[in-house]
Amino acid sequence: MFKGYVFEGFTLNDRMKKKVEGKIVVLDYKTYVESGNFNISQVDELKKINEYDREYKQNIVNKLVKKKIACIFYTDTSPEFESYLTEKGITGIVVYKREDLDGICKALNLMATSDINNIYETEGKIKYVKPKRIYIDGENETLIINGPTSQTLDEIERAVMDVVSLLKHEIDMVVGAGAIEIELAAHLGEVAKNVGGKEQLAINGFAEAIESIPLIIAENSGLDAIQVLTALKAIHQNDKDQGVDMVKGISDARGRGIFDPVLVKIHAISSATDVSTLILKTDKLLKGEE
User: Fold this and answer.
1) In terms of residue numbers, what domain contains 189?
2) pLDDT tens string 132-143
């Protein structure tokens, strides 16, 4: 966890300051003249276009200097523009993602400048510690995750966002790692004993389906799934918090801090039941001609 806002960015010029304290601006527009289709018949015409582009860049930098800006954030790259910034002692940081501009503005409590004649500025501290990583001091907090591959990072980010989404709401939790499913299946088994006929078969079938969850967890952990499931059923007669452990096979899920939201469990069971019921109601299949 880092106190402040962290994002990916870089400077094109190594002579720029890597630690800045002063006025900051977020530019939300192009720092160069966008090119179009030109029919150029003389060299002088091309020179005029290039000269206009240089004046455009210099005009932006001059107005930043007039406002005594120490650092700017923007999304496009232009070595010529960066050289003008360096000459005036302004640090220019190119932001990789457009959405990071919104994060920077939120961290600095600042509006992005979309018109150079109407500059929005604020005081702040910027630190460029590692290549491609920029730190902004502020009240925000940033969680930095690491992983060997982009796929691993995507999975970690998804898991973190799931947890954050849950923590935003006050919800009931149950013990995870397959422990709750073992208890549900056991409870359904007791209910089935007091029900006769086909209903008993349906209830037992439902319990068996629920038991597939800890079974799959054990299989994905590389364990002997049948052995783990049998052991869990026996242990749960005395300790209902025991769940699947990929290292030990079985351990205290509550002690390890493994919990599942009650709403997620209810939704999963309800949805699976609805789909199963829909399939069972299907009395005829029509096969199209090949």
Assistant:
1) 173-281
2) 777 787 777 888
